[in-house]
Design goal:
Elements (H helix, E strand, L loop, with lengths): L7 E10 L2 E11 L4 E6 L5 H8 L7 E6 L2 E2 L8 H6 L1 E4 L11 H11 L5 H14 L15 H13 L5 E5 L7 H18 L2 E6 L2 H6 L3 E6 L2 E5 L5
Helix pairs in contact: 4-5, 5-6
């Protein structure tokens, strides 16, 4: 079955953070439809794993494959093609503040090779409807709440129908009620579209309430946790 093949896989991989190794011997598989949390205290290597997945940090030891790309041998010119298969959501939204919502999304589509104006307009409408922001397309980012900006960031992540959404502390700058809305949105995308989600968080209440697989980073390792985290 196709679902038996992981979309992300690491074997005995050392993960670098800057000049030093922060995690040794990472073994990880993410399958289509998975919702996987990477948890741990600040400085334990969670974000370094994410940066390795998107080929921002090099993989210098072990094996790593993301959406069919070998991270150990990937060429610089192929990194944009890898990233088109991923949707990345950041804690601080990273929207372009000098243009409205729809032009933020249009910028990404043009940058990833879309040519048809009608096709781009249709896709922008689809992803904004998917995150409940279809009526805010003409707003500037500063006119939106934090939760609304994060919904736009998730819409941006959906533009190229990614195999995986990678979310780095997507609720970190949000109040609890707004964070619940974002988590409900991510879990519904995961469930309804079958899109795998890999989410970094240090908030234990989130992965206690919204269930998924959990990998915990500590003591320069990252291991799957099968029992309840204390």
């Amino acid at each position: 079955m196709e679902n038996d093949r992981p979309v992300i896989s690491f074997r005995d991989a050392d993960i670098r953070g800057g000049e030093s190794t922060v995690i040794y011997g990472l073994d990880m598989d993410v399958f289509p439809g998975d919702f996987l949390y990477i948890v741990g205290k600040v400085g334990t290597g969670k974000t370094s794993i994410i940066r390795t997945m998107i080929a921002e940090n090099p993989l210098v030891k072990g094996r790593g494959e993301v959406c069919g790309f070998n991270l150990a041998t990937i060429r610089e010119k192929d990194i944009p093609f890898l990233r088109r298969k991923l949707g990345v959501v950041f804690q601080d939204f990273q929207l372009l503040m000098d243009r409205p919502v729809e032009e933020n999304l249009l910028f990404v589509l043009k940058a990833t090779g879309w040519k048809s104006s009608s096709g781009m307009d249709r896709r922008i409408k689809e992803v904004l409807e998917a995150v409940g922001m279809e009526h805010k397309a003409h707003r500037m980012p500063h006119q939106l709440s934090g939760g609304e900006q994060q919904r736009v960031a998730i819409a941006r992540a959906l533009l190229n129908d990614p195999e995986v959404i990678i979310a780095d502390e997507p609720t970190g700058n949000l109040d609890n009620e707004t964070a619940d809305g974002i988590m409900t949105l991510l879990t519904s995308i995961n469930r309804e579209r079958g899109t795998a989600v890999v989410m970094v968080t240090h908030n234990r209440s989130i992965f206690g309430k919204y269930r998924g697989r959990v990998m915990e980073c500590r003591n320069e390792e990252c291991r799957e946790v099968t029992e309840e985290l204390a």
